[in-house]
Write a structure and sequence with these properties.
alpha+beta; four-stranded mixed beta sheet; about 300 residues
C-alpha cells in the first residue's frame, strides 16, 4: 500500500506541475524577469547582504509577526472569506501554499509581503480593499504571491528593516546594502507584476490596478486614458530627473505598465490565459524589458 501511495503522490506532483502557467519548468518560475533571478544569485556571494538578511529574519520571527497579530486583522475562511478565496486562487495558480493575509488600517493604497521563505505574510492596506474591485485585488494578491513564489521574501523583509527600523546612527553603515537591495527590488517588481497578471489573466485589469495606485481618486478612475498615462514615460526619458529612480524601491508606474504589456505578448502568458496561439519567447520579453529598466533602473 505504501508503494501505491508513493506512486499516486508522484503522479499528483507531476500533474500539479503541468498545471502551472509554464508547465512546471524551473519550478514554475520561468515567467520571472531574468535580471531579478541573476541579482538574487549574486546576493549569495555578498557578505553584508547575507548578514542583513539573517538579522532581519531573526527580528521578524521575534517581533514582526507579533506586531501584526496585535495591530491588524487576520484574513481566513471565517474572517473576510472573499479576500481569503482570492488569495487561495492566486496561490493555486502559482503552485504555492495559501499565504496568511492581514488587513492593515491605512489610508494609503498599498500591499506588502514580509517574513521568511517558509513563513510569509501579506499585508493589505484597508484603502486598497475600498478602491479595488475583486479582479483588481486578485492582481495585487497575485503580485504579492509572486514575491513568495520567487523567494523574494527574506530580501523584502531585510529592506523593510533597513529603511524603516535602522537608526540614523547606523543607517550610513547599511547604505551599500540598502542600495543593492533597492536596485534588485526594482527588478523583482517586474517579476511579481507578471505573477499578478498570470493570476487575473486580464491585462486591462492588471494595468488598471497599477494606474489606480498612481491616481488614487475613485471619481477619476473611469476617465483615465491609459495611452496618455504611458506617454508620461517618453517625457521622463528627456528629463534629468529620471535618475531619481535609483532612490526608489519600485520602477515608476508607466515603466511597469509597458513592461507588463511586453509580458502579455509572450507565448507563455497567451497559452496560460487562453489568448490563442503565437507570442514571443520569454528571452524576447526580457530583452524588451531590459531596454526600459537599464535606462536608469
Amino acid at each position: 500500500m505504501a508503494e501505491v501511495g508513493a506512486l499516486d503522490f508522484q503522479s499528483y506532483v507531476s500533474n500539479r506541475l503541468k498545471s502551472l502557467p509554464d508547465g512546471g519548468r524551473e519550478g514554475g518560475r520561468s515567467y520571472a524577469y531574468i535580471s531579478d533571478h541573476h541579482t538574487r544569485k549574486a546576493f549569495d556571494m555578498i557578505g553584508p547582504i547575507e548578514s542583513v538578511v539573517t538579522a532581519s529574519v531573526r527580528l521578524f520571527r521575534s517581533v514582526g509577526k507579533s506586531q501584526l497579530l496585535g495591530h491588524a486583522v487576520k484574513v481566513g475562511p471565517r474572517q473576510f472569506p472573499r479576500v481569503h478565496a482570492l488569495a487561495a486562487r492566486c496561490a493555486d495558480t502559482l503552485g504555492i501554499a495559501t499565504p496568511t493575509v492581514y488587513i492593515v488600517n491605512s489610508p494609503v493604497m498599498n500591499a506588502a509581503t514580509f517574513g521568511t521563505n517558509d513563513d510569509s505574510v501579506i499585508m493589505v492596506h484597508s484603502a486598497l480593499i475600498d478602491h479595488f474591485k475583486d479582479d483588481e485585488l486578485m492582481s495585487v494578491l497575485g503580485h504579492e504571491c509572486g514575491h513568495i513564489h520567487n523567494n523574494h521574501v527574506v530580501y523584502l523583509t531585510a529592506l523593510h528593516y533597513l529603511r524603516f527600523i535602522a537608526s540614523a546612527v547606523t543607517r550610513w553603515l547599511m547604505a551599500p546594502a540598502e542600495m543593492a537591495l533597492m536596485s534588485w527590488l526594482r527588478r523583482a517588481e517586474i517579476t511579481s507584476d507578471r505573477a499578478g497578471l498570470l493570476c487575473c489573466k486580464d491585462l486591462d485589469v492588471s494595468t488598471k490596478a497599477l494606474t489606480k495606485l498612481a491616481l488614487g481618486s475613485s471619481k477619476l478612475y473611469d476617465e483615465l486614458n491609459m495611452e496618455a498615462f504611458i506617454d508620461q514615460y517618453d517625457e521622463m526619458k528627456e528629463s534629468v530627473g529620471k535618475y531619481s529612480e535609483v532612490r526608489l524601491s519600485h520602477p515608476v508606474l508607466p515603466k511597469r505598465v509597458i513592461a507588463l504589456r511586453h509580458f502579455a505578448d509572450s507565448e507563455l502568458y497567451r497559452r496560460h490565459a487562453a489568448k490563442g496561439d503565437g507570442g514571443i519567447s520569454m528571452e524576447e520579453v526580457d530583452d524588451k524589458v531590459h531596454e526600459i529598466i537599464k535606462v536608469w533602473g
